[in-house]
Amino acid sequence: MLWKELKTAAKEKLRGNWGWGALTVLIFGIASNIMVAAGYVLLLITSFPAIFVFNPDNGGLYAFLGIFMIIAAILLFIITCVQLFLQTGMQAATYDLVNGKKTENVFAATFSQFIHHRGWRFFKTWLLSTVFNILWFLLFFIPGWIKALAYSQSLYIIQDAIDNGTPMTAREAITLSRKVMDGHKWELLGLMLSFFGWLVLSIITYGIGFFWTLPYMFTTMAEYHKYVMADYTKHHQNGLISSKARTTASYSV
Question: How far apart are CA 22 and CA 186, in angstroms?
């Protein structure tokens, strides 16, 4: 069964690297908490002067609360976006691990999207695919999920392009991801859902389980990317070459 093979391959890659993976989760968690704390501080700093500006009489209190809520919503949105982008560092790190290019320094590994000259193109690809996903979700929920699965390989593709010195734009990476995932979307959804039990276990253990679940899940997804790229290369070799996307795709378990 494909899922079992992918997970077996992931566990083999993580053998001797579980501590490394857990430390990347820890560093990411600390960075996320620092951002949340900084957001609260910034919220207090920006809203505190309003207390002295608005008079509680004549609706002043409502004006203050309105501004407070707007600022809070903006900060929450920004913090969420930054956290989601920082999480892509784990995706990049585990893909390096699967490709035999592990970043030994756990701090550098946690923020792998910024090393090896990846930062700007990696960010543009993530941002563009995120915007596309949001637009699709605003249109309809189910098409949004379908498109999210279609664009799921974009960052792996751009990472290969950057590391191999292959010219590729964010839009080209997203387009190639959509082609690669043709016929594989439900397969990937099933693989993602297979981690549901592990995620629940991580939650009920007060988050401790995430130190093992997240590296396991991300490494499995990296193995899955190699699998779908190998399948795409096999059946669409001409299309792959014309798109100038020469990836390191190979799959073995």
Answer: 29
| The dihedral sign for the CA sequence 81, 175, 150, 218 | negative
For every one of its 253 residues, what pLDDT tens digit does the chain have, with 9 covering 90 and above?
Answer: 588 899 999 999 999 999 999 999 999 989 888 887 877 777 777 666 655 555 555 555 556 666 767 777 788 888 888 888 888 999 999 999 999 999 999 999 999 999 888 989 999 999 999 999 888 888 877 788 899 999 999 999 999 999 988 889 999 999 999 999 998 999 999 999 999 999 999 999 988 999 999 999 999 999 999 999 998 888 776 554 454 444 444 433 3
Q: Please tell me the distance from the alpha carbon of residue 158 to that of residue 171, in angstroms, as a whole number.
A: 10
Contacts 24+ apart (CB under 8 A), 5-10: 5/253, 6/191, 6/220, 6/223, 6/224, 6/227, 6/253, 7/194, 7/216, 7/220, 8/253, 9/220, 9/223, 9/252, 9/253, 10/98, 10/216, 10/219, 10/220, 10/222, 10/223
Report the amino acid identity of residue 170. A
Nearest to 113, CA basis, from 87, 83, 77, 150: 87
The dihedrals phi and psi of 138, each to the nearest 5 degrees, come to -70, -30
